[in-house]
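Predict the structure of Glutamate--glyoxylate aminotransferase 2.
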Amino acid sequence: MAPKALDYESINENVKKVQYAVRGELYLRASELQKEGKKIIFTNVGNPHALGQKPLTFPRQVVALCQAPFLLDDPNVGLLFPADAIARAKHYLSMTSGGLGAYSDSRGLPGIRKEVAEFIGRRDGYPSDPELIFLTDGASKGVMQMLNAIIRGEGDGVLVPVPQYPLYSAAISLFGGSLVPYYLEETENWGLDIIDLRRSVSEARSRGITVRAMVIINPGNPTGQCLSVANLREILHFCYQENLVLLGDEVYQQNVYQDERPFISARKVLLDMGPPISNEIQLVSFHTVSKGYWGECGQRGGYFEMTNIPPKTVDEIYKVASISLSPNVPAQIFMGLMVNPLKPGEISYEQFVRESKGILESLRRRARMMTDGFNSCRNVVCNFTEGAMYSFPQIRLPPKAIEAAKKAGKVPDVFYCIKLVEATGISTVPGSGFGQKEGVFHLRTTILPAEEDMPAIMSSFKKFNDEFMEQYEDHTGYSRM
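Done. Here is the predicted structure for Glutamate--glyoxylate aminotransferase 2.
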């Protein structure tokens, strides 16, 4: 009898190729241990509220009123909710055709897209067109929409930074394209080398691949670096010369933990460069409510903005977005609140600033505690987390540990990370899930555990790591990078 369409051997081969390490083997092992009663600290995914970050009060008040609009008619509503939250809820409800239970336009509510355009204009110093902004269910959905439009088949390649966030490798596999890696340089604080970039494109072309787009993640995930203006200019020149679309994943733009390199958008740098580059390079930029001091991952709110994309292409992207009918409406309101924040003098402003500043300052301290903690461990070396939410230490595994991993049928850093979660309950992601240079091993952890828990977590990691190294080291000495 012939296999059925959903029998394993006959499903779409592209689905089988997809790998997604953030929820992979390690996560499954950690979940098993949790069922057995072990306390697990899930640092495998940038999920702030799951690790104890408290939601900001004002946006939740506004969305609560939008979700339950009958509260607005209650004579006591002013006792429970501040006047600015009530006003803002009415403002967003007036944009909908039937409250949060009704579909919106497939690009999102026009009023919120206008607020996003105004935010981009303030940030970059150049006006933005709401018609070129699509609201999406998280930035990931927007990335997938654009990759789907770019990739025509396996002959089409997309340049992706390695180490990379596995959304890119997974989506490129799913759409049947080819990932073209360009390696970030760990010894240069995960900087980007244009010479290496050119080499990657040449190698891909020699294999018959047409490189069509380039991804940048700024601030970096999993590597945590912030790109300088000089680096962004080099990237834009490169895209201009090579005729590439630039996909700017800028979801961590609020997460910056140093003052030397503040976040600057690829769009601002592009428009500052002036013609012909500024009106020829095709750029798509992504943002979200999941990161920053908002951390509203479960709400799934995001947007992408298109620069220099032809109107006919925009129409086609709209047509595909329409298949899903509408991005989720509560998330659109979270996006509106993020891009159009409270202003000085409004009732809830002081509380909002206190909450958001408290979260960012704590993240800055945690970035430092984690980096210092890793660097105090035997055979571990870690660049400072300049931005985003992750630490990506290099683990210098001794030859005996690599041998033991092979015997166990595991990739060496997977072997190390499984031992780590079994011993300590700290669930991380092995560097091999993000891509890394041959023979070099890492792990990625978020910097999100509660600040008061951080010393105990780092102490538990250090104890495990140093005992692991003691067990597998041959004591002939090991050089750091």
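The domain at 93-339 is CATH 3.40.640.10 (Aspartate Aminotransferase; domain 2).
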